[in-house]
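thread: overnight batch results

M.L. [08:02]
morning all. the overnight job finished for the chain we discussed friday. pasting input first so we're all looking at the same thing
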Amino acid sequence: MAGNPANFHIAGRTKVMADVQRNFMFNVLIPDISVVAPASSIPFGVEDLIVRCTSVKMPDVSIETIETLFMGTKQYFPGKKQAGGTVTCNFYETEDQQITRFMYEWSQNIFNTNPDAQDGVGAGKSSSAIKKGITSDIIVQMFAYNGTPLPYAIKAANCWITAAPAPDLNFSGNEAVNYSVSFQCDYWTLVGPFNFTSGYAD
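M.L. [08:03]
and the structure it wrote out:
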């Protein structure tokens, strides 16, 4: 049997347990900026994107249920696992409009709506013939309260931008311009130990 509940107390518990993980200690990395949005990759860089992402929501993981019947009794078995879906990130914009350019160029790279484009790609055509050229991983790295990286990160695979709403502007407002951007991912995995410099697990 486990320890006597009467011996459980907060002083002893805090000595043996790790510190709580804070939900505001994180970075979001999109390592393939120059691939998915080549027109805005200079001078825009990975660091610019990291510091401007204020929140991120990964898709929930679900395992479908298979139901069978046997002599009036139901039985349940695990079925397919769903770990893909929508990744939602919120970015705040600055007066250089780099977030605006980055999201616009990525969407143009997927489907060009500019008939006067000078890159030789006609309207309605992708500048990338394969999925690899229009997708990127999105990596969420969490940190301890002292700023050191936690041992594992979340990597959403093969993400592509699906929605980047226009900014909400008004005379009565007094807030920074921000974008809630949606991405589609095939799946996400827990990776580690993590090397934040390269963006991938060692």
